[in-house]
Amino acid sequence: MTTIAALTAADRDEWLRLWDGYLTFYEQVLPAAVTEDVFERLTAGAGIHGAIARDEHGHAVGLVHWLFHPSTWTRSAYCYLEDLYVAPDSRGGGVGRALIAHVRERAHVAGAAKVYWLTEETNITARTLYDQVADLTGFVHYETDMSE
Predict the structure, then answer these.
(1) pLDDT in tens, 78-88
(2) Rounded alpha-carbon distances, angstroms, from residue 83 to 57, 73, 148
(3) pTM of the predicted model, to two decimals?
(4) For residue 128, is pLDDT > 80?
(5) Domain-embedded: residue 122
(6) Tell me: the pLDDT tens digits for 95-125?
(7) What angle do CA 47, 50, 54 make, to 5 degrees?
């Protein structure tokens, strides 16, 4: 049985292992200072939220991060599910679905109008789940790098 709890400082090493797996999956490298800052904000209640999933043996098997932001299309906030990762050996067992449900419940309690997220078009494993729990909007994502 999967349990999900808010991230705490005591989860750092297990979270870091999952975070590193997530970054590797997306072929990203972040400076250590960014990773430290992310974990600090996740556990300090500084606008972003995080939770960790554990299996029946208490091993960390997944993570999720989300934030709330105002919207011009509703009087309520939107909830952006920014990061979702399940360890490869735990995929297909309901962990991802449970993490999404956890965020949906937090968004409901907060009065958010919706929960939304992005994934790579080629992430077929995740999209198989997402197609079951959410609607594909058809929007195309653009961004511009401000560090240039």
Answers:
(1) 999 999 999 99
(2) 24, 24, 24
(3) 0.94
(4) yes
(5) yes
(6) 999 999 999 999 999 999 999 999 999 999 9
(7) 170
In a domain, 115, yes or no: yes
Q: Return d(Cα 67, Cα 35) in angstroms, integer.
A: 17
Which residue range is the domain that position 121 belongs to? 3-133
Count up the domains in the chain and report the number: 1
- Is 147 strand, coil or helix? coil
Task: Name the token pair of 77.
Answer: 């906030």
CATH code for position 50:
3.40.630.30
What are the tokens at 18?
Answer: 């999952």
One-letter amino acid at 84 equals L
In a domain, 148, yes or no: no
Q: Looking at the domain assignment, is residue 145 inside a domain?
A: no
CA 5/CA 115 separation, integer angstroms? 19
